[in-house]
Sequence to fold (211 residues):
Amino acid sequence: MTEGRRRWVFICVVLGLAAIGVYLTVLAPPTGTSSDGAVPPVQDVGRTAPAPPPVPATPSPPPSAESFDIYRLLPLSKEEFAASADVAYRFATAYGGYRHDEDPAVHARRISVFTTPDLGRILARGVLSPGELEQNRADQVVSQASAEIREIRDVKERSVVYVVGITQRITAKSGSDQRTEEYAITVSQVGADWKVHDIQQANAGQEGDPH
Fold:
């Protein structure tokens, strides 16, 4: 190759490299864009978006005096407590009230209205005791009774043990007296009714369950 041809080839190579440089710096689109100039979306290969933080649970408000229903925690409803307490109260006043000129059988029947048959028979034997009857008639004893339900000692699905205070205001030939004693009275559900199943001195313990 002659000297002139080599020079010509060198000039062509320089011009070609210069053209490529101009294209890359001026005419070619910027790196990361498409031919129309828009920036293509970035693909995050191998990564996922972080999960949003969990929403904390809203705590329930504490029970208030107005909203708290204690009866839902007990085996008896409010109506059942009221019915059983009424029987205990009326039995207590019938049990403690009597008079010397009343037929003792009437007193026994007045008590047995509120009791189970077994307890009614047991209490009737005490009411009809000849010795006590003669003493009350001789002294002309009259006992007026009032009752107060003071606490619930025990409660189960079909029975309640109430502690009941019975106050007797007694008038007699020998003088007047007032006495108050506490009894544990068990009231049990018998069918749709409530009946007194047992009565004991409050400090003597209480069976509590019907047999």
About this structure: The helical segments are 3-27, 78-96, 104-112, 117-127, 130-139.
